[in-house]
Amino acid sequence: MKEILRSANPYLPLWEHIPDGEPRVFEYGGEKRLYVYGSHDTEKTAYCGRDQVVWSAPLDDLTDWTYHGVCYTATNGSILYAPDVVQKGDTFYLYAAENQGGRIVVASSKSPAGPFTDPVETKLGFDPGVLVDDDGRVYAYWGFCSCYCAELEDDMATIKEGTLRAHPIGHVPDPWNEDPDTAHIDLRDAFFEASSPRKIGGKYVYVYSKRYVTPVPELGVYEDNNGFLSYKWSDSPLEGYQDGGDISFNGGEILKLPDGTGQQTYRWGNNHGGLVEINGQWYIFYHRHTGTDEFARQGMIEPVDIAIGKNGKVYIGDITYVNGEPVSSKPVEMTSSGASINGIDAYKIISAGYTCHISPLRQAYIKAVYEQKDGISAPVVNIKDSTTVGFRYLQFGENSPQSVTVSAKTEGQMSVRVRVDSYRGKIIAELDLKSGETTQSAPLTCGIIGKRAIYFEFYGSGECEFDSFTFDR
């Protein structure tokens, strides 16, 4: 019996919908683990939900996740937006955003898994992010279409007098405000939401959701777009933030077109997450969207590079070096493999829901699933002629598979070309899917080994629901 792939990208089960993930390494009970805290998309027709849950993984295997249950429920039954959790001393503090982010409370626990109790109301605002500095001082960051930061008192709730700073980062034009602040607009690095502070190499790094309001042709962006996680950096926690760049973009694989522009292959949407270092490797946590709206988001993870130049500038993402010196950075690619840096096991049963490439854009999509069933698949639906579904990356090992097996529900006649390395790459297998058939296998026409990208190109007069696939030795 073949094993079902249970963690890739997204890293949690496909039925779990936790966006806004803030990753934190905490030691508890003599063990260091990675904990993730985020919103909980359970409303299905609106953002988020009325409780928040905790998952954690051992530091030596970021695909082995444990569910710890509900850690916090809103005191007034309201919907909870993005939280953050930090540790000071032997206590863990959850900054919970009740009333859809309109009321920020801080609750506490002696365990990183909660439950978090005794909430105290604060004067913080939307999407709070908190940093406990090396000297024990605590700083909070928040905002929507404009940002704020301040130092907190030892009670972890009260803003220390004289420390509140407005607009440490220039912000996006605010179309939702009848009296917007226009003095601090920055069209190049426009702060939108999702404050997430970190201290890296002695530098203060402010990760946030940028809303591009000017075109970015190389990434296929031609309209207002807030699918990015970006950053600025400073030598001081509350001021002096300088230009950084973009870390991640949830628009899928960006196809490079002949004219030098890019083309997205995934339904981008809002984004939120943070940075964490695990065993010397840095990762960006972010989220993607399933379904046809923004209410079924899933946590994603990509490895990133971080470097500090001779001039003190911080580089994060996919970094270009010249003579060993960092000179520029760009967003890391969106993948199916995530923390499985060497690629996901091609010989497991892989849900189509791990795709990072669906083209043409806004036709087929991943169907959101909610049944808490072990190994459940999230199919790609509404597949029609000329749809391509891609996966980056699979690991085939040193010996090539002999065949590929596809599971799909088909109405009418559909065929599949399996391509390698590119959506227009070499065809390594072809399958015919007849109406009513659910599983079909075909031999490979050539060998493939190592870490490779795989694409399924569907064509024909029918319609298809692509459930899963696997390769066979």
Write a brief caption for the model.
It contains 1 helix and 35 strands. The chain has one helix at residues 98-101, and strands at residues 22-28, 31-37, 51-58, 66-73, 81-88, 91-97, 103-109, 117-121, 129-132, 138-143, 147-152, 165-166, 191-200, 203-212, 225-234, 242-249, 255-256, 262-263, 274-278, 281-289, 297-308, 314-322, 325-330, 344-345, 350-351, 357-359, 365-366, 380-383, 387-395, 403-411, 414-420, 426-433, 439-443, 451-460, 463-472. The longest helix is centred in the N-terminal third of the chain and has 4 residues, at 98-101.
Overview of this protein structure:
The protein has 473 residues and is an all-beta fold. The protein has two domains: 22-330, Tachylectin-2, Chain A; 344-472, Galactose-binding domain-like (Jelly Rolls), CATH 2.60.120. It is built from one helix and 35 strands. Strands 24, 26, 29, 31, 32 and 34 form a six-stranded mixed β-sheet that branches. Strands 25, 27, 28, 30, 33 and 35 form a six-stranded antiparallel β-sheet that branches. The protein has a five-stranded antiparallel β-sheet with strand order 19-20-21-22-23, with no helix packed on it. The radius of gyration is 22 Å and the shape is globular. The chain starts with 21 loop residues before the first strand and ends with a strand.
